[in-house]
Structure formats: structure tokens, C-alpha cells
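__Protein archive entry__

___
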Amino acid sequence: MNAASGRRRFLIGAACAGVAAAAAVPFFSRPGLARLATAGRRADGPRIKVVFFVIPDGLGINGFASAGAEWNPQGAIWHPAVPDGVTDTDQFTLNVASQALEKHRDKALFLRYLENSSAFGGHNAWTSILRATGGGTGSSIDVLLARALPGNNPVVGAAFAGPMSKVGVGGNAWYVSYDNGVMRTPQKDPRVLFENLVGTPGILRRTRSASAILDPAMADLEDIRGKVHGSERAKLDTHMDSMEQLIEDIGGTLPPSCDDAAPPEAHPVDDPNFRNEVQAAHHQVIATALSCGIMRVATIQVAYSSEQSPIPGIDPRSAHDIAHWGQMGSEESAVEADRRRWQDRATWYTAKVSDFLDTLSRYADPDVPGDSLLDHTLVVYTSEMACGAREHMMDMPLVFLGGASGRLINGTGNGRYYDVMALGDVDNQWQTGRPRRLVRMQRVWGELGRALGVEVPYAGNMDPIPDLFRPA
């Protein structure tokens, strides 16, 4: 299907949907057209972008221990090290798994003492990591942000990339993004994702002229008008009047197109031997779409929770087995080898987010000439649980990264470590011998929403977490 026919089919479909759905607000209603007009113009200044980067099975919150052993507080490999009693500092030492972020630490804010929606719950945590609760209710934070922070293509909401691996018995789909309680399915093939976001049917990228988009739609609507009568024709007349006014209002041109953007190379997306190449291709597509201004919010889920694929160069066993400290024997040499695999697994994931930040730094921001995407993107790196071995969600890993248009309070050039225990609203149910309070993750999403002017309607405690973001 060529670009013109794809565009016309989209517009006809949208118009017909508007005629058929009296109670809905159709794409070509006055509010819908107003959003199109606003989205189609360049911003007068920076517009922050947000990408959620979610990996499975935790990041070494607990120390490595033999199978069946109690939780080992020593030897944990994620949270940065700080002197005892220090809660907010730019003087910290990155840990084994977080060292892969060293080159980007100046733009990092590491949060400590968070909890997902509950202390325990195993891999069911994928249902709640980007929203307040599981159980099939509510939209995840990426979807909420995308509704309020549209890009230049009103059809695209929060882009959802990956994962590539199978999971569990029967290949269960365990995805972290939800729209009104409905689990969204990510696109695992980067080339298909490119076509969906940047290629056909990307209606706004095909032309720089607003009237060239809307004039053919007017002709199609006129054809439809001759086939409907009464109240249906009256509705259609209202849509056509709105379109005529919009064409006059927009007048000028839309932002530069992405016609010259190159799709990623093709790789076998389900072959673990090509994980690095496939992951890099996903990074390229998301960065391309952000740089074109197509959307402003995306989620990259690197793999399913309880990931059943191996990581190339680490071990033929699945990454999930390694997260469980699946030792091959009791000999000291076997234990040490498993420790290295466990550390290498967490480091590999963190290296992927570092690679994504590198990719953002190579793409131009669509709104601020001379700036990179990294200057105006906030990347949120986390996992659906804290510890894959013990399958709990206490002391969760979470780090904010990127320039974020200067909105992130991340220190003065050396990064920042922020212990929020004093703001805690739930007990740490694991470290019973060391009383500590934890902050539920939903409060972090609420604070992010407030910073961006987006209401996050999650139930439960949504008290603010101060000093995360600067006002606009």
C-alpha cells in the first residue's frame, strides 16, 4: 500500500468512526482537530521526552548466596555505596552492576528504599511496576504521560518496544504497559516498529503541508456526505466545518519530515545470539521517532519477566535461572563461576541502558536546534522486582537518567544519590532486624506526573516526594 492510499484509508476510517460513534469524541471533532493543530507545530522551547527502560528479575539488591540460604545483606551489586548516615549526596561510589552507567553518572539520580505495589508477589510484579496496582485496573504511567504529552503524530501514543524472548510455560505474555487495565503488546521486531512509527502509515511525516493532508480528507468526506442523511449528515457537516476552519488556522507548515530516516538492519529477532544487535536496533528506532517528534513517550521492555532466553557470552542457561543463583555444584569453583554469571547478567542489562543513552546523544532534538535528544529526555531505568532469586520487591532499583530539559535534580555534575527512607510509608518486611521504611513506587510516578503537569490517578498514598524535579 502506497503512502497516499494509506493516508486516505486512515482518514476515511477516522471520519467514518466519527459518524458512527455519536457519544465518542472522534478524531475529526473540533477538540481532536485542535489537538492535531497543536501537535503539528514546533514547540517554542524544549519539550521533555520520557522513556521507561524496564529489565526483568531484579538487579542484585540482595547479596549472592547459595541456593536456599537466607538473604545475604553483604555483596549486593546495585545500589551505590555512600558513608553511613548519608542520605542525599553527589559523593557516591557506583556498585558492580551500576558501574556500566559511569559515563552517564553526571546526569543520574539514584533513588534508594522504594517498594513496588507489595513486598512480595513473585513475577506478578510485572503487572504493577509502571502503575499502582495489578489486578487488571488502571493505566500505566507511560500511557498516562503519552495522553498528555503528544508528539507530532496524534495516532502514536506511548511507543512500546521489545521484548524478544519467550517466558514461562507456554510462552506467557508478561508485559509491563497497560491502557485502562488492558495489557499492551510490544513490538519485538525493530523493523516492524520502524514501519509503524516512522514509515507508512505515519500520516504526518509524509508531507510538510497541512492542507495537503486535510484537503484529500475533505474530498473523501464529501463523498460520504452524499450517502448519509438526517442526524448523521448533520454530524458530518460539523466535522467538515471543523476541518475547513483547521486548514485556515494552521495555514503554515508542519515540522520537518522523517522521509530520510533509515530503518535498522534486519536480524533474527528470536535468536539469542543476536540479542545485542536486536536491542541496538530497538534503541535506534525509538531514538529516530523521538528525534522526528513523532511521539514523546516510549517504553523499552528488554525482556519478559522470568526471562527464558540466555544472554550471549554469559551462559547457555536462561537469564532467569542465573538471577536465581542456579548453581551447578557445591564446589567452590562452581559457586564462584555462578557468582560471576550473576554479576555479568545484571551488568549486561545496565550496559544496554547506557548504550541507549549513547544513542540518544547521537540524535538531534526536534525542538531545540543544536541540542541532542539526551539533553531533553528523561530515561527511567528499573525492574519489575528487586531480587530475582528471592522474588521480592523491597529496596527496588530505580535511577533517573538524562538531561531532561534541566528538570531533573541530579546534582551539579557528579550525579546524585537520594535515600528517601525518611519519607517511607510502608514497613520493610524483609529486613526485620533493621527497621526501615520504604516508599511505594506509585508515589514516584505521581511525582513525575506532577512535574510534567499530568494527573496520575492512582489509589493509595500519593504524597509528594520532594526535590526530584525542578519546576518548568
In short: Residues 1-42, 201-209, 250-256 have pLDDT under 50 and may be disordered. The chain has two domains: 1-39+209-253, 46-201+263-451.
